[in-house]
Amino acid sequence: MMQQSLTRQYGTQPQRSGKIKRFSFSTFFVYLTLTAWALTTIYPMFWIVNNSFKVSRDVMNDSFSLALNPVMVNYDSAFDRMNIGKSYINSLIMSGSTVLLVLLFGGLAAYVLSRFQFRGKRYIFSILYGSLLIPAFATVVPVYELLIKWKIVNTYLGLILPQTAGNLTFAILVMAGFMATIPKELEEAAFIDGCNRWSIFTRVLLPMAKPAFASTSIFVFLWSYNDLFSALIFVNKETVRPIVSLLNEISSQYGTDFGLMATAVSLTVIPVLIVYLFVQKYIEKGLTEGAIKG
Fold first, then answer.
1. Is residue 89 part of a domain?
2. Stated pTM of the model
3. Over 186-255, what HEC string results?
4. Domain that holds residue 196
5. At 88, which CATH number?
6. What is the pLDDT of residues 25-58, one digit of tens each?
7. d(CA 188, CA 194)
8. How many domains does the chain have?
9. What is the dihedral of CA 90, 95, 101, 102, to 10 degrees?
């Protein structure tokens, strides 16, 4: 009725407010590229998981076929023969401890560098940025000699301390950049309320810098968890080896068992993917929010 009255009054029909979105060629090309990239990333993971449910003979004969009759013998062997559960615990202890130490020392250093003005601050930032250019291979010999003198080779600390030192620079730069965007008026108000420096850090800056701390902890955990190079050098003992070094053992102990190798890779990578899917929003927020605040 309303449409007919408007037509009689104005002689035209009212236009619809909705706009038709046109699917241009450039948009189609972007989606096509992203789809191809996703397939090249997802399919290898699917291939590994699929072959983990096959015996070694089937993997060698036809590795691209679907596991229509899946078997669990590889997973039984992974937990019985390889003791992969112990390696999981070792990885969680080492990576978790590394994250805690990096957040503690890196957060305090970032607080000082972002909120205080002192002589030599610019040179400290230059040293931090320059240290990112030093490859980890160049520090292996001196670090290993220090671990020998401290008698912590093949212990949890033998991997926790080098990984903590290696990740501190990244953590300090990321968290300092985020903390620098927090208004200083909040600190002044906290001072008026009687807070000291530690209270300001824990009660004011730390809650506001949660995205930066979350993204930093996620990256540090993933880098520590996947650090095969350090694990092979500093903790090559079976009782303390992390799960990534277990993959290197398969080629020597069970060299022809490709089904077991696929199972070990699946058990190593899938937990990381699950964690990343749940915390992806924190990574994006922590890396982008500091750039647009202010």
1. yes
2. 0.77
3. HHHHHHHCCCCHHHHHHHHHHHHCHHHHHHHHHHHHHHHHCCHHHHHHHCCCCCCCCHHHHHHHHHHHCC
4. 74-292
5. 1.10.3720.10
6. 788 888 889 888 888 888 888 888 898 898 888 8
7. 10
8. 1
9. 160
